[in-house]
Write a structure and sequence with these properties.
Helix content: 25-40%
Strand content: 15-25%
CATH superfamily of the largest domain: Metal-dependent hydrolases
Structural class: alpha/beta
Number of domains: 3
Number of helices: 16
Distance between the termini: 30 Å
CATH class of the largest domain: Alpha Beta
Number of strands: 21
Shape: globular
Largest sheet: 9 strands, mixed
Length: about 500
């Protein structure tokens, strides 16, 4: 915790800069006389909250940013950011909370990520998960939702084979699911994570009841929508309409996971629906990753009968994560029937779909992946943010740096700040914000991860701080540090 002296200095200096006021001579003298724990000098500072984009110095005391100023600063640890971008640490809202610990955290932090959030699912016992993780050393900040799939499992509803997934919850089971979800929220969940595409028998009544709960407690709903692809009459457009209608009727905040892969051929209409709903007061958002392939389990309901027509793919578009083997009709059914089921990468997303999704004002960046202890996974688990910056800022020029930093940090923080007041200090680079900071070289930043070699750290991420502690120094992981903290929800309703 900050010492009283440091709290005083932080409070004294907070709000002096980027707020339209001119600090007094005494205040300027005070800030230059402080010896900060960390000083970042001469970088191009981006604050996505205020839109500030200019060369400045950043002073850190303990776990907070104390000052951002053009005036010279003195620090115990000084980082030269000349020619580099200084921005809020990236917040990955769609990954595993386990990515907060090594070895997965290595690939996240060298991609500029300082906070990992498991918002697409989560446990039933949220408080128990937090308590267990708080006893471990974590490199990154982390948080979780309460997971709909786990809730259904807790009341005896299986998400196993096609026959089991077809069972519809009774009214009594829905009551139990809602109550367990409420307990998860009280235990610190940031929201409710849905996997409707993986549990297609989930009734509209069940969805509505959980949206009501989310609205009552001020926590968002994060959803894998019910249907994929353009096939009529039940397609991704219908699935998006279900979410928008339910959010509008209940007043809940709703978020669509990886809209790029759920609506690869319908992206124009889907984005128009999401943006239009948001413009008319419905709290809607989405995320996307900058890769032309998705990933899931081979046993998933995604591959239930009719999947080739729904997704406009063939067997050869499916690749085993473990070996890189492209499947045939014979190997697909053979492997899917094997108890030793494998994860797969599915190549089916048009490049233009990615550009449209990632430049939409309602879409933030999320990886939807992590690299496991054996170095396996989708390359999005290691190189999502560097690839996004390379493609859409440096090379494509589709987004300004301020716009890009909103998508990599600020939008996720704002979405969650009602559920967790701690998020009000994240996704910003201004006095009083948490010292989660990334310093990168826009001219060289790039992903090294590939489909065949996903366990590759990104280039161009020079420095990363988590809660004021340097964890990446000149592109290399700092050993022996574990500054990551739990981000718990704080329920706001009785």
């Amino acid at each position: 915790m900050p010492t009283p002296r440091r709290v005083w200095w932080a409070r004294t200096l907070a709000g002096l800069f980027f707020a339209g006021c001119v600090p007094s001579a005494d205040a300027l003298e005070a800030q230059t006389n402080v010896v900060y724990d960390v000083v970042i000098l001469g970088g191009r500072v981006i604050d996505p909250e205020t839109g500030f984009d200019g060369v400045a110095n950043v002073g850190v005391l303990d776990d907070r940013i104390a000052v951002v100023t053009a005036e010279p600063l003195t620090g115990t640890q000084v980082l030269d950011a000349t020619g580099l971008v200084v921005a809020p640490g990236f917040i990955d809202p769609l990954t595993s909370v386990g990515a907060a610990r090594l070895p997965s955290a290595l690939y996240k932090v060298t991609d500029g990520v300082t906070t990992v959030l498991g918002l697409h699912g989560g446990p039933v016992d949220v408080d128990g998960m937090y308590r267990a993780m708080e006893s471990e050393e974590m490199l990154l900040n982390y948080g979780t939702n309460v997971g709909h799939g786990a809730l259904r499992g807790a009341v005896g509803l299986s998400s196993g084979d096609e026959e089991e997934r077809a069972v519809v919850a009774t009214s009594e089971q829905i009551d139990q699911i809602v109550e367990l979800a409420r307990q998860g929220i009280m235990g610190g969940a940031l929201g409710i994570g849905f996997g409707l595409q993986y549990m297609p028998s989930t009734s509209e009544q069940e969805v509505f009841r959980l949206f009501e709960l989310g609205a009552r407690y001020g926590v968002p709903l994060h959803l894998h929508i019910r249907y994929l692809g353009p096939q009529r009459p039940i397609n991704s457009v219908k699935a998006i309409q279900e979410v928008i209608a339910t959010a509008a009727a209940t007043g809940a905040s709703a978020h669509i996971a990886h809209v790029n892969s759920t609506s690869p051929k319908d992206i124009d209409l889907v984005l128009a629906l999401l943006e239009g709903a948001a413009a008319h007061g419905v709290d809607m958002s989405a995320d996307a990753y900058p890769w032309e392939a998705g990933s899931t389990g081979l046993e998933s309901s995604v591959f239930d009968e009719g999947f080739r027509e729904r997704m406009s793919i063939d067997f050869g578009d499916i690749e085993l994560v473990s070996t890189g083997e492209r499947l045939t009709e014979q190997t697909f059914y053979s492997y899917r029937g094997d108890e030793k089921r494998d994860g797969v990468i599915v190549h089916f997303i048009p490049t233009e779909t990615l550009r449209k999704a990632l430049t939409s004002p309602v879409v933030m960046v999320a990886s939807d992946g992590a690299i496991d202890a054996r170095g396996r996974g989708h390359p999005r688990g290691a190189g999502t943010y560097a690839r996004f910056l390379r493609r859409y800022v440096r090379e494509g020029g589709d987004l300004t740096l301020v716009e890009a930093m909103r998508k990599t940090s600020y939008l996720a923080a704002v979405q969650l700040e009602q559920a967790s007041p701690a998020m009000r200090r994240k996704g910003r680079l201004s006095a009083g914000a948490d010292a989660d900071i990334v310093v990168f070289d826009l001219g060289t930043v790039r992903e090294r991860a590939t489909y065949t070699e996903p366990a590759q750290t990104s280039e161009g991420i020079r420095y990363v701080l988590v809660n004021g502690v340097l964890v990446v120094d000149d592109g290399v992981l700092v050993e022996g540090v574990a500054p990551g903290r739990a981000i718990r929800g704080a329920p706001g309703a009785p």
